Amino acid sequence: MTFEDFLQQVRCGDQYALPDDWMQGRTVYGGIAAALMLEVLFKQVPADRSPRSLTVSFIGPAEPGTVTVRTQLYRSGKYVTQAQAWLEQKGDVIATLLVSLGAKRESLLSKTAEIPPAMKAVDALSDMPFVPGVMPDFVQHLQFRWATDEAPFAGQGIGQIGGWQRLRECGDTFGASHILALLDAWPVAALPLFPKPAPFSSLTWTVELLCDLPMMVPADGWWQFHDRTDFLAEGYAHTQARLWSPSGQPVALSRQTVSIFL
Length: 262
Fold this sequence. Notes:
Layout: H1 3-12, E1 16-18, E2 23-24, E3 27-28, H2 30-42, E4 49-58, E5 65-76, E6 80-89, E7 92-103, E8 142-146, E9 160-167, E10 173-174, H3 176-183, E11 200-209, E12 215-216, E13 223-233, E14 236-244, E15 250-260
Antiparallel strand pairs: 1-5, 2-3, 4-7, 4-11, 5-6, 6-7, 8-9, 9-13, 10-12, 11-15, 13-14, 14-15
Helix pairs in contact: 1-2, 2-3
């Protein structure tokens, strides 16, 4: 199932299911689970509100198939709406999303986020191949071009990854749900520090969106991504990432706490 098909099913229906070709190990890809909760909330908040900040907690593995989304709007004022969603399956809460949505307003103050780091040009790089059975299933829906010098499982470096990415099948309009699908797609930034392959999983994920969405982008545009490890100890890594649009516009900041079983 393409990401666009998934979004249309969520937007047009009131019963929800997670697809079986977006697996990430023993759970459905976190980016698509978060997008599901966000899209359900979009049906209940004012249309002029865009997500400004959201926090996702991944509580348990999500299986393909039927899920329930429970929601609550805490407050909706003149400019800001605060809301929460719970993703439930087989009677258990498997993920939550807390979001602050804000309407755009005029301001005298403006400061642009930092420019993208210098990387090899996307045209000078090749696609990272999808290897069934080795890579998570969801990777088949995206293209990646690795651009940093640190290699996975090298056991050295400062713990960073980065490069270029895009959805293989997409429309012309990108919204917050597309941003979530891109932001969560790369492996943990600490991967080059791993001396060997080992399991890891996201515990919490916080995203700050830097512009009013949706926006129009080239259908074949490449998004630049960079993630770095701030701290790693006692089985947990703390990372921060940034995403830029194909035109170089800063779009999102992302922080994760990741459980590492090594």
